[in-house]
Amino acid sequence: MSAVPVVVLVGPMGVGKSTVGQLLAERLGVGYRDTDQDIVAEQGRSIADIFVDEGEPAFRALEKAAVHKALSEHDGVLALGGGAILDDETRALLASHRVAYLSMDVEEAVKRTGLNTARPLLAVNPRRQWRELMEARRHLYEEVATAVVATDGRSPEEVAQAVLDALEWKEA
Predict the structure, then answer these.
(1) Which of 12-16, 112-116, 128-132, 149-153 has the least mean pLDDT?
(2) How far is CA 40 from the centre of its chain?
(3) Alpha-carbon torsion, ordered 24, 26, 28, 30, to 10 deg
(4) Is residue 27 packed enough to be buried (19+ CB in 10 Å), middle (13-18) or exposed (0-12)?
(5) Under DSSP, is residue 170 helix (H, G, I), strand (E, B) or coil?
(6) Nearest-CA neighbor of 99 among 91, 88, 107?
(7) 101: helix, coil or strand?
(8) In Å, how far are 13, 52, 133 from 137, measured between CA atoms?
(9) DSSP 3-state of 80
């Protein structure tokens, strides 16, 4: 029998999925896993390097494989990369999971990431590109979400508690 994550976190880059995911895992007494970290470990290079060397389609194929593997074998808190929800099969798989969409507006993104041009999809005019990414992805995040948790102006601890509250979870 395959494992099932207790909660899957989705949302845009820089929203805090990794930080909040680790806090949730601690509070729930389960493991934490991040599919972006899985890809970096497996490939032995950064996501930015994969984008530059092989292009976005190659990265998305690696991401899809990493997400599908993690969904079938991880039983803790799972954080997905910001673009993982672009894949139809991934969204279909997420339908049977508890998914929390961590949302933020562009001003919060600027505060948190500075809309860092080291992020491959934000290399030129990061503020405009972030808005365009969110316009293209917001409905997909909402489609897979069991709960939507706004992160604007909240500490990671407050966001973790909001996820637990939204999913009506009692701490372990």
Answers:
(1) 112-116
(2) 15
(3) 110
(4) middle
(5) coil
(6) 91
(7) strand
(8) 12, 22, 6
(9) coil
